[in-house]
Amino acid sequence: MRKILIIATGGTIASVPHDRGLAPALTGEELVRRVPQLADIAEISVVQPMNIDSTNMQPQDWLAIAHVIADAYDAFDGFVVLHGTDTMAYTAAALSYLLQDSPKPIVLTGSQQPMAAPFTDAKLNLYQSVLFAADPCARDVAVVFNGKAIAGTRAHKQRTMSYNAFTSMNYPTLAYIRAGRVIWSGLMDPTPSDHSAKTLKRYTELDSRVIVLKLTPGLKPSIFSLLAHDYDAAIIETFGIGGIPTSDQEAFAHAIFGWVESGHTIVLTTQVPEEGLDLGVYEVGHAYQDHPGILLGGDMTTEALLAKTMWALGQTRDTEELASLFSLPVNHDRTRTAEAT
């Protein structure tokens, strides 16, 4: 029987009602006891590095979770992180970069309703996550939720209340969990993972001084000068397929190029959820396509871009090395089409 380590961090799944609303209170051990069927799947161990609402999850908490997994890596066959849904996609992406090429599965799950709620999704999500983590073909970081396994860099919370909260952005679902079975999609090779064939690549540094800036009509380019003191990189969610305003005497171009020339990093993406960025289509984006110090997000999610930028800046400040790290595909985070843009 496989050994699975459950890492409880809080979230809705662990929450109980208080005077001012739901708050995490149940421990990981209590959550596991609510799903006794887990004992039929794997030998379960539980650790609890934190018990927080995922709204309060910070980059240092990602490092703490990665540290727990890395320290226990040799003793277990898989890992399940119980996490709040609001920032789960950010944590899944961060773990994808901090713990790369894992031959063992690292699964994140949670629920839209607390474990104690009468019609909760918590029990099924926990059960299916352990089932997936115990599958001999599973590997790398994934989100398992509502019967689907999604690559950790492609998960996006699409709904605030429905049980099918997460979607896989610009990449197919890895597998489906049905009737107690993991059914792999045609894209994946359902062969048992050879734990000796790959070595886990562990990283321990992040630069959290990264901000996401969404372009809106009327936004002033002077925002960059206000942000320069507190942030090393800005991820800009452009309009459409890559539009940046060219009015106001090229003020945006001046601000963006000035930001890069002062040693900061710019990452360009689109605020449109699907299909990605292509700056070569319109004149309003073309000037930024090949400029040194400007990184292109392709069809990556904003969650993955934030985590990858923090990770890359945590490894180097050299412009060429940074671009090389950023363009390196990790856990399906960007498609070949996106790499070519």
Verbal overview:
By secondary structure, the chain is of the alpha/beta class. It contains ten helices and 18 strands. The strands form five sheets. Strands 4-1-5-7-8-9-12-13 form an eight-stranded mixed beta sheet, with helices on both faces. Strands 15-16-17-18 form a four-stranded parallel beta sheet, sandwiched between helices. Strand 15, helix 5 and strand 16 (233-238) form a beta-alpha-beta unit. The model has no long low-confidence stretch (mean pLDDT 92).
Determine the N-to-C terminus distance. 46 Å
For the biggest sheet, the summary is: 8 strands, mixed
Question: Residue ranges: pLDDT <50 for 5 or more in a row?
Answer: none
Strand content: 15-25%
Number of strands: 18
User: Going across the major beta sheet, what is the strand order?
Assistant: 4-1-5-7-8-9-12-13
Order of helices and strands: EEEHEHEHEEHEEEEEEEEHEHEHEHHH
Structural class assignment = alpha/beta
| Rg value | 21 Å
Average pLDDT number:
92
Principal-axes geometry comes out as globular
Number of helices: 10
